[in-house]
Amino acid sequence: VQLVESGGGLVQPGGSLRLSCAASGFTFSSYVMSWYRQAPGKERELVAIITTTGGRTNYADSVKGRFTISRDNAKNTVYLQMNSLKPEDTAVYYCNGGYAYWGQGTQVTVSS
User: Fold this and answer.
1) What's the CA angle centered on 46, arms 95 and 42, to 5 degrees?
2) Contact of 71 with 83, CB cutoff 8 Å
3) pLDDT reported for residue 1
4) Percent of the chain clearing pLDDT 70 (strictly above)
């Protein structure tokens, strides 16, 4: 099983980033997928979650209206579109598959 995140980086406040997570080694379309993040000195928190078909999504209150989770089951990939980024969004972002599998994380830094 492998989950590989990409798309992180340094962005100014108000900017946008799109994270991707490419999955392999399991039946991607059968798994709920989610994004978590962990800021320095804080616990890992759930950011967004999407059902197997993409028909339902849910978000942490802190990112509602700014972040969008989506998936492409044909490409075994889940995405996180992040808009109107704030300094408090700075964290390592992790992809999770089925509450069981984790990626290595990608750093997102929001700073001027």
Assistant:
1) 100
2) no
3) 94
4) 100
Each residue's pLDDT tens digit, 42-86: 999 999 999 999 999 999 999 999 999 999 999 999 999 999 999
Query: What Rg, from alpha-carbon coordinates, does the chain have?
Result: 13
How far, CA to CA in Å, does 87 sit from each of 16, 68, 80, 93?
12, 18, 17, 14
Angle at 17 between CA 110 and CA 15, to 5 degrees: 55
Residue 40 token pair: 């320095």
- Report which of 87, 108, 111 is spatially closest to residue 18, judged by C-alpha positions: 108
**How far apart (Å, rounded) are the C-alpha atoms in residues 55 and 32?**
11
Provide the mean pLDDT of the chain.
97
Q: Does residue 47 contact residue 80 with C-beta atoms inside 8 Å?
A: yes
Joined tokens for residue 25: 């080694």
